[in-house]
Amino acid sequence: MNGLYIHIPFCVSKCFYCNFVSFKTPLSLQKEYIKELCAEIKNKKKLMKPKTLYIGGGTPSILTPKLLEELFKAIEKNFGPIKNFKESTIEANVESLTPAKLDLFKKYGFTRLSLGLQSPDNKYLKIIGRAHTFERFLKVYALAKKYFENINIDLIANLPRQTLAEFSKGVKKVISLKPKHISLYALEIEEGCVLYQKGFSTDDDLCLKMLKTAAALLENAGFKQYEISNFARKGKKSLHNINYWKSGSYLGLGLAASSYLKGVRSTNTADLRTYLTQKNKTAFSEKLKGKAKEGEKIILALRMLDGFKPTKKMLQLFKEDFDILIKQKLLIYKKEKLALTEQGKYLANQVFRYFVEPF
Asked: Residue 64 and residue 55: Cα distance in Å, rounded?
């Protein structure tokens, strides 16, 4: 299954944990960006016939209805009606999501909405620099449910000074909202972000307890953990993201967007001025071969908790590594599929290192 990803790099403000390519810009620059993005869509339309669409960021909902419609029309002109995609997702933050924009999403046939909450506790929303309150989220979420049956909510575990009890209470609050999908990420404080500059650090042991607690609460509430960071009700797994984990082809358009086409992995420039002024927007390109290619496939496939069936080539190259990890009780065979164990799920990065060593 082929996927189309479109990146909108603009935000109301930069969250204190964020290291993504996103920033605050004036409307004039947003207009210039959408014009260039639409041109890129036209120029690259022959590279793929996508089945899924994902518009992410940044904050796509920060765009005005006029700019959003300009983008949607360009997508439809070059890739066909949005309503005909097998799945079409757009990300939004509640401080910029309005009835007019929801009307527009509905008009063009988007099937899935992803909302950034991160925490239902205002104290922690302030600490991490989010632009909304939980009360605001509840109002917008109630409105969004009138438009979308399939809504994802993003959550972050191990926020600065957060206790296990507070986190558990927050997970229960989100469950009570009855979304169809929840994405749960462990906070990473990377050099350069505001939390790093303020001297905050993460507690790995506490984070592990939080993730295990959340998994149990979500499972009891009817969610299935189908990927390391993702939980879904029946029939609501993210098809677009599953395509990534199964090493499917995808076309990324926009600033810093990545593509994987015919075995070649490439990434657009992350410099806005370069993106706006140069026809060739590719900053990086490589074709993985041999052990490196198979290792990447394994890492991606292991993110899916149901596991995968290793190919003969994978077994030839990595059987010794598989055996070591099985002995360490980090991997297990489920019938013919190789998968992370319960322990391996929480030590995934340790597992993945076996497949990213310099070859």
From this structure: 15
- With bands split at pLDDT 50, 70 and 90, how would you rate the model's confidence at 199? confident
Report the relative pairing of strands 181-186 and 230-232 from DSSP bridges.
Answer: antiparallel
How far is residue 59's CA from residue 49's CA, in Å, rounded to a whole number? 25
Tally the domains of the chain: 2
Element (H, E) at 313: helix 312-327
Q: Is a pLDDT exceeding 80 seen at residue 271?
A: yes
Please say whether the beta carbons of 302 and 340 come within 8 A. yes
**pLDDT attached to residue 139:** 97
Please state, in angstroms and rounded to a whole number, the distance separating the CA atoms of residues 270 and 273.
Answer: 9
State the sign of the Cα–Cα–Cα–Cα dihedral 42, 34, 62, 254: positive
Query: pLDDT category, 359, cuts 50, 70, 90?
Result: very low
Residues 208 and 295 in one domain: no
CA distance 258 to 19: 16
pLDDT at 358: 56
What pTM value is reported for the model? Answer: 0.95
Cβ atoms of residues 62 and 98 within 8 Å:
no
| Residue 38 shares a structural domain with residue 160 | yes
Give me 340's structure tokens.
Answer: 């992370």
Q: Which of 138, 126, 227, 131 is nearest to 174 (CA)?
A: 138
